[in-house]
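Check the record.
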Amino acid sequence: MLSSGLTTVKNLPLKKRLCFLLKLVSFVSSVLIFCEFLIYYVVIFQCRWPEVNGGVHVGEKETSDSVLKAIILADTHLLGEIKGHWFDKLRREWQMERSFQTALWLLQPDIVFILGDIFDEGKWSSPQAWADDVRRFRKMFKYPVSTELVVIVGNHDIGFHYEMTTYKVNRFEKVFNLTSGKLITRKGINFVLVNSVAMEGDGCAVCRTSEAKLVALSHKLNCSQQKPHHSNKRCSDVEKLPASQPILLQHYPLYRKSDAECSGEDSAPPEEKNTPFKEKYDVLSQEASQKLLWWFHPRLILSGHTHSACEVLHAGKIPEISVPSFSWRNRNNPSFIMGSITPTDFSLQKCFLPYESRVFTIYCAAGALLVILILAHVQLLTPPFYFAQRLISKHKAV
């Protein structure tokens, strides 16, 4: 039967064969363009910036502050030369690049925060490998002049505490213009960037430097939030910042026992939720967590590291949002956070990226359809069709 099908194809006019080949190429190209390009626009186009009250009260007078539109993502884990297979790197980097560039084009944020673990092998990469990873990152996460990119350090960027060195920290800070314990203020909103790997509390050189900067920032912020008539000699010579309560941005979450209380489709899998977290490894220690809460009294904490979503309240009033991984290598349904923020209020909304399982399903369905079309074209499916027709004809005759 196969030989007869091939003979039939050979007997077809050249024009019909070329027409069929053109249809196949068009079909395959359409599937590829949709799955590798258009699907990101289709999915991210459905995301909307959350609404937030922009009005703030100053005495009895109300003014309207512009809203800061921020995108927050975490744990991109760009694969390195040691553990990264070339096809895995190609696939994951293309997915993240298309998602990021599509989000920038459609949503036009003012600022983007990446909450650590930019790289997967920064903790042990050689200078040459590090330079290559940085080059690929800059290509994937390029951004227009209208958008600012702020990167926070993670344990895979400089190593866990026992692997962290001044050289690795300086290397990261030089590339991303970041210092361990930095405050940035945009549109009257204070963001504190924390090197959570340096919150070990053992007095190491990097830890001492980082904590000293955080204490100094805490003093500035606390002095800035005091009422004008309040007299405090310790604040007389301190540079005043906007009185807005700060937002903490860090890689490690603050201490919690586990993800048992976390919910949502992108939370940890059920079999992992009750696994106890290890202090200074999965989460910050209780002591370090309490220090950050005491120092800054934040109105919001944003963290990564766990690769899964979670929302918890600290001290019964301070929300912390754990942002899931942005890489399909870590989860089937990556996402990022869209935040509309003012000096006194904020509103957050999650934006999911295309499910990789759905993309795979589309490819499988398209492949099956392609095989059927080819078999039908070479008339290998003709006998079954004729058989069905004969059965129908006999049934009508009866």
